[in-house]
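Folds abound. A case:
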Amino acid sequence: MIVRILNVSLSIALFWMGVADPVRAMDANQLELYMIAHQAREGDSSAQLLYGLACQEGRYGLKPDYKRAEKWLQRSAAAKNPYAEMMQGTCYAKGQGVPQDPAQAVKWWRDAALDGNVQAEYLLGKAYKDGFGLKKDPEQAMHWLSLASDHGSRDAQALIARMYHEGYEAAQDHDLARGWLGRAAANDDHEIVDPMSVINTLLKYTTMVYQQSANVLIDKAKRGDPTTQYELGLRYETGAWAVKKNEKLAFYWLNRAAHNGNRLAMRALQHAYKFGKLGLKKDPLQVRYWAGRLHKHAPSKSSRTVKTFLDR
């Protein structure tokens, strides 16, 4: 009798939580969900976070429900749960369960970052870079991205690398560059950056970028220098350093650099075809093609050799 009453109560609870078929859902996972929901209603911020994520992602047989998810994430965030604060910001950024509001997104990311959430540090830095929900501020962007990078965020390390190549003044600190290059080498992570190519760029950067006009770069690029072709492609992609933004020319020079063996250009084209950048349509075949070229042109030296070079 007691077991039957428990089953009925559990069925009602599962129905309340949004489980499509309570009868079939009587398993260990649903019992776990029941306990999470119970603790969430009792005010446990960690349980509120877990239940919010379950509602958002459709875990435990729940139907995805952004509004229900946001309600529980908000409760957890209000209790200063750093991950919930970060997720709350992301809900506002994407308009999931709440009206899209970049300023609110930044507010919650800042709270989460100040409470130590690494992903929030990265998202806040990216917001400062892109001017999402606040005024663009490259120095603040580098502040938060550097914190995230120091705490192990590969997304932050990749964005710092991109900012360096796009010519952001705040990203031109060579000591900083040595730092994230060292981390990339230690992680053996060629998905972030090709360390050897970037080292070469670091060594050439001052004379190639700061002391050369666009016309000089174009002349060198036309003569077939792949590093210059890559740098010129970035100039046209971003409209930096005395050239007008031009996606067609950006693709042209990145494509030439890639075909001449520049791995950073290969990576840029792979990214462009994957996400439909540079005026290109998304093309999975081209994504696979450039992934194959990257693999074929992988550096022969080990990441340990790169790290030793950086430590000299």
